[in-house]
C-alpha cells in the first residue's frame, strides 16, 4: 500500500510513501483541495519542513512534509480520524490509478 498508518505522539498519521518529496507535498495538497474540496486554513513553510492545515468535512487536517520523514497527514482532533482514514483511501486509490 502506498499510504501507511503509524501511531505517533498519540495520533494516527498517514504516511504517503509513494510521494515523499518536497514537490510531492504540493501535489498531495492540490489533490485534497481540487478533488476533495478541502479549504486551506494556514500554510507554514520552513527550510526543511512544511505544515499546512486544511478543513475538510468539518475537521482540520494537518499535512506535513519533513525532509527526514517525507509527507504525511493526520486529523488535528482524535474525533477526525474517520475523515483522515477516508482521505487516505481516496488518495491511495488515486495514486494506484495514476501508476497503472
Explained architecture:
The chain is α+β, with helices and mostly antiparallel strands and 100 residues long. The chain contains 2 helices and 6 strands. The protein has helices at 22-36, 81-98, and strands spanning 3-8, 11-16, 39-45, 49-56, 59-66, 70-75. It has a 6-stranded antiparallel β-sheet, with helices on one face. The radius of gyration is 12 Å and the shape is globular.
What would the keywords be for this entry?
100 residues; alpha+beta; 6 strands; 41% strand
Mean pLDDT: 92
SSE string, helices as H and strands as E = EEHEEEEH
How are the strands of the biggest sheet laid out side by side?
A: 1-2-6-5-4-3
Largest beta-sheet details: 6 strands, antiparallel
Short account of what is shown:
With 100 residues, this protein is of the alpha+beta class.
Indicate the topology:
Elements: E1 3-8, E2 11-16, H1 22-36, E3 39-45, E4 49-56, E5 59-66, E6 70-75, H2 81-98
Antiparallel strand pairs: 1-2, 2-6, 3-4, 4-5, 5-6
Amino acid at each position: 500500500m502506498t499510504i501507511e498508518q503509524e501511531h505517533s505522539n498519540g495520533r494516527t498519521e498517514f504516511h504517503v510513501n509513494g510521494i515523499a518529496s518536497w514537490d510531492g507535498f504540493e501535489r498531495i495538497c492540490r489533490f485534497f483541495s481540487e478533488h476533495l474540496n478541502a479549504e486551506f486554513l494556514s500554510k507554514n513553510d520552513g527550510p526543511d519542513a512544511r505544515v499546512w492545515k486544511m478543513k475538510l468535512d468539518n475537521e482540520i487536517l494537518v499535512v506535513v512534509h519533513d525532509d527526514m520523514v517525507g509527507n504525511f497527514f493526520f486529523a488535528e482532533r482524535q474525533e477526525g480520524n474517520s475523515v483522515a482514514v477516508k482521505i487516505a483511501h481516496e488518495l491511495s486509490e488515486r495514486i494506484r490509478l495514476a501508476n497503472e
